Structures are given as C-alpha cells and as structure tokens.
C-alpha cells in the first residue's frame, strides 16, 4: 500500500468540489479523520462494494451521538450511539477506502482496492493480537479464582487511534541509526507508517478505575515473498508513558 495508511491521515489538500469527503468539518475525534461517503468518487466508473467488515477488536463504550451510514467514520468503525452491550470496530468498505485514496491524491487502480482493504484489515487484526499478547504477559491481573488463567483474554478495548506517518518513533530512529552503523545487521529503512492506539483497560476491582494506555505501532515493508506477495512487518509495544510500561518493555527486551 502507499506510504502511510490513507484511512488514518487528515488532509487539507482536497477541495470540496472534487473530494468524496461529505463534510470536511465533520471530523471524527477518535481518528482525526473527516467522514467519507459511500458515493462514487469523481470520474469513477466501476463501483466498489459498500459492505463493511466487522473486526474482532472491542470498541470502548461511548455516549456520543450516533452517525448515519453515509457519514460514518471511514476507519475503522461507524460511530454508533450508546449501548449496554459489547461492540467491535468496523473496517471501511472498499468504496470508502478508495475515496480516501482519491482525497489524498493517490492514483490507484480500482480493481486493486479489494486486495488493499483485505491487507489493511488483516494488519489491524494482527496488531490487535500483539496488543493482547502484551496485555496477557505483563498487564493482566492475577487470577482471582482457581478457574482463572493468566492466559485469559484481558478485558481491554480500543478507545481511539491516530495515524502519525510523519512522526518517527524513538525506537524507529534508534534502529535507523543502528542501520547506518551496522548495515549488515540492521536496516536504516524507516517505517512506512506509524499508529498510536489508545487502549482502555477495564477496572480490575471496585477500588480501581478504567485506564487508558498508549501503544505505538511501526509498520515496515519487506521484499515480496517467493510468490510475489507483499510482506509487511510491524513492531507493536506499549509506549513508555509510565513505570509499568517501562518495566514491561525491559522484561520483553531481556527475554
């Protein structure tokens, strides 16, 4: 995919007369993205599917008002109203994904969009599994019953996220420096994208409150595999915003 996920970047370079964005001022606070419509982009002759795939990523409860299908947030979910039940984020439709590319000025064949959406969704699912791995290993509360297990899925959800493709993380800068010094051991190629995910840990007891914790994800591209398929790597870790996260990072480094 192009450098930087188009679904996670704000843009002011598209005029209202040519942009498929329905309302540039209608910005979703969860991802700083203007809402994208399901309409055909200007000049588009081949329609793309409008169906959106529901992810496995739990969504943090929100009491914000619902949005309509047409003005739903492009990535990754339509913002629904209050609910007493668990919900998950929803990925953009191929048409919304294409509209985001058009808005950024990226020329992409329409027939390539479904595959790009599949890759986009797969990568988000894989990143979430890495978040769960960190949470199980370092942040999951001790089992309170004999039936509980440290491998149980933590009670966490994704509250919001932000694409920061122009901001290199400290770890990415460090690896690039090592690549210049030890080119045979490290690569100095920068990540093509960066996301910051805010994860909410549900309260572990009556005296505790839900807490938001930031994860940093660096996305790297690699050489195609033997079948010509694209290969991606991502580095997922908790941001060092508190002592617990620092301790987890040190333990992981020492493994």
UniProtKB/TrEMBL annotation:
Its EC number is 4.4.1.17. Residues 9-47 have a biased composition (Polar residues). It is an enzyme of class 4 (lyase). It comes from the Eukaryota. One of its GO terms (molecular function) is metal ion binding. The keyword Repressor does not apply. It is found in: Mitochondrion inner membrane. Residues 1-86 are annotated as: Disordered. Keywords: Heme, Iron, Lyase, Membrane, Metal-binding, Mitochondrion, Mitochondrion inner membrane. GO terms for cellular component: mitochondrial inner membrane; mitochondrial intermembrane space. It catalyses: holo-[cytochrome c] = apo-[cytochrome c] + heme b. Lyase that catalyzes the covalent linking of the heme group to the cytochrome C apoprotein to produce the mature functional cytochrome. Belongs to the cytochrome c-type heme lyase family. This is Holocytochrome c-type synthase.
């Amino acid at each position: 995919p192009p450098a930087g996920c188009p679904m996670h970047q704000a843009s002011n370079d598209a005029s209202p007369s040519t942009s498929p964005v329905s309302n540039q001022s209608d910005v979703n606070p969860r991802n700083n993205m203007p809402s994208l419509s399901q309409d055909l982009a200007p000049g588009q002759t081949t329609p793309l599917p409008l169906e959106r795939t529901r992810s496995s990523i739990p969504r943090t409860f929100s009491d914000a008002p619902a949005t309509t299908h047409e003005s739903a947030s492009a990535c990754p979910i339509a913002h629904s109203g209050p609910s007493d039940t668990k919900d998950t984020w929803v990925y953009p439709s191929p048409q919304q994904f294409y509209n985001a590319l058009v808005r950024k000025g990226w020329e992409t064949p329409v027939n390539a969009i479904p595959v790009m959406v599949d890759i986009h969704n797969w990568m988000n699912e894989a990143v979430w599994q890495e978040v769960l791995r960190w949470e199980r290993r370092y942040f999951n509360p001790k089992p309170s019953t004999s039936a509980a297990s440290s491998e149980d899925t933590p009670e966490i959800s994704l509250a919001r996220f932000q694409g920061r493709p122009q901001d290199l993380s400290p770890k990415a800068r460090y690896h690039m420096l090592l690549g210049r010094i030890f080119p045979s051991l490290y690569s100095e190629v920068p990540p093509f994208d960066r996301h910051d995910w805010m994860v909410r840990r549900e309260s572990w007891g009556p005296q505790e409150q839900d807490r938001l914790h930031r994860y940093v994800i660096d996305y790297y591209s690699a050489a195609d595999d033997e079948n010509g398929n694209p290969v991606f790597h991502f580095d997922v870790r908790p941001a060092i915003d508190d002592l617990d996260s620092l301790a987890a990072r040190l333990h992981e480094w020492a493994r």
